[in-house]
Amino acid sequence: MIAISLQVEIDPPFAVGSASRGTPLNVVPMVNGTVTSEPGFSPSWNGKFVGTGTDFIHNDPDQKIMRLNAHVVVKDDESDALVYLSYQGIVDLTPEVKLILMGSPDAKTTDFGGSFIEMRFETGDEKLKDLEVGVFVGAGRFRVETGKPVVVEYKVSRVVRGGN
Structure pTM? Predict the structure, then answer.
């Protein structure tokens, strides 16, 4: 069952590089975003990014996998509670994804299934504290629309214990 949907608007990366690692660092500003609970998920919450989040990205040396390490603060629409959201994950660097990352006019929206994340939450809000003890995983895609910033979209599920 899908628990939440995450929409992340990104700007082009800053190519920071790395003098001591084998894989250079790229820093991607997460300039806008929303979290939306799916019907039936508890705790139900919807929120918007506060400020700019950041995704610290390293590509594997063979340039086939991109490794994500993202951090952002989200403000709950109902209570104004703040939630720290972080995720780590991988993206298959397919030719289609590379076109998006290069800003190519030929770039197109990708399907779900080439990007996977593990998400964590931290908050001081009692209503949302159950987010802190859940295990959350998601699948993502890149959404490309002419004249608009690239959006990374994730469908995130809570992992639950199966029956015996």
Answer: 0.92
pLDDT digits (tens, 9 = 90+) for 78-135: 999 999 999 999 999 999 999 999 889 999 999 999 999 999 999 999 999 999 999 9
Reported as half-sphere exposure (CB side, CA atoms, 13 A), residue 44 has a value of: 4
Quick one: how far is CA 104 from the chain centroid?
Answer: 22
Max Cα-Cα span within the chain: 51
Assess contact for 98 and 66: CB atoms under 8 A: no
How many residues in the chain?
164
How far apart, in whole angstroms, are the C-alpha atoms of residue 120 and residue 142? 21
* Closest residue by Cα to residue 110 from 86, 124, 88, 92: 92
Task: With H, G, I as helix, E, B as strand and everything else as coil, classify residue 3.
Answer: strand
Residue 34 in tokens: 């929303």
Q: Which two tokens stand for residue 130?
A: 């159950």
Q: In the structure encoding, which two tokens stand for residue 82, read together?
A: 């703040």
What type of residue sits at position 160? V
Bond prior to 43 in cis (omega within 30° of 0): yes
Helix/strand/coil for 128: helix
Which residues neighbour 78 within 8 Å (Cβ) at sequence distance 6 or greater?
45, 46
Instruction: Compute the radius of gyration of the chain from its Cα atoms.
Output: 16
